[in-house]
């Protein structure tokens, strides 16, 4: 990255920063319901080399897209910068909105986080740029506030109505751990995740079915959850306990809303159980929780698609101990707990099933719990 920066700008960068994509182990569509999530950071990340520039503007070169976008203070208005660069301009905007003075800068960035796969490539971009700009500008911003500012960029500048999950994962995760986050209080802690200790590893398989939060039904799910909370007289669905679920469901007007609520309430309970299981070192017991989460997303929240369901079923038939879709839904990736050394075999089984069904080829890799956003050089 240092060399790439020198090639582009003719001088050395001041530093190099990185922020990862994530998989969410469990806890889907619970974050914006004030609930619980349990993601871990991937080794796949966005890397940014940066140096200050003196004209008070920001120049951003994407090595993946071979494009440079330059913007200035007058562009720090939601909607002014579009496409991939909106995630960069939005971070500058959100930092400024939070009261920080952001140094003009040249940034050169690259990413190996698959895009549109539900692995938070956009949060990785936001958090890498934010980490670089915070350092370059000499700002003091606590880790949780960094996640909140990056989320603000996503919600208000880019216009995607997401929760805190992705930016919190990219910022707060640590190597060898999953993150347990209470999205209401923002309390969080690391949960050791040494899958090899129980002879397992985590396969991440990208179905290559593209998804999009802005154009998908994500906003629709959010609205239904908010409406249900209003009808039930609670601040958020997090306030409905598993014990009260039947009573709550009987007070809702239609079957679709009942199923949406059942997903959120049971998913929160599954996250709490997953944390308990991991704390006890019983990591193999995550498998039934992953399976139940998938069923709930498929039948109650209705956010899976045929490629995703086929990938999950095939992975299980090929020896996975538990499998589920991860991320916002309507495509993207599945994760599967598989015996150490069998990830390729399971991946190949899914590829064969896709071929037979007439779907395009999937891609896969091992999900390794890795470090969150940080300075590399
Ligand atoms: C996307 C969103 F960005 C997250 O906030 C979260 O809601 C997730 O979908 C579903 O769990 O990744």
From TrEMBL:
Binding site for ATP: 62, 116-122
Site (Transition state stabilizer): 22
EC code: 2.7.1.6
UniProt: Mg(2+) binding residues: 122, 154
Keyword Oxidoreductase attributed: no
Pathway: Carbohydrate metabolism; galactose metabolism
Catalytic residues of the enzyme: 166
Location in or out of the cell: Cytoplasm
Record domain GHMP kinase N-terminal: where: 87-172
Swiss-Prot/TrEMBL catalytic activity: alpha-D-galactose + ATP = alpha-D-galactose 1-phosphate + ADP + H(+)
Chief location: cytoplasm
Protein keywords: ATP-binding, Carbohydrate metabolism, Cytoplasm, Galactose metabolism, Kinase, Magnesium, Metal-binding, Nucleotide-binding, Transferase
Domain Galactokinase N-terminal per the UniProt entry, residue ranges: 3-52
Annotated residues for binding of substrate: 28-31, 218
UniProt record similarity statement: Belongs to the GHMP kinase family. GalK subfamily.
HAMAP family xref list: Galactokinase (MF_00246)
NCBIfam families: gal_kin
Protein name, per record: Galactokinase
Organism: Microlunatus spumicola
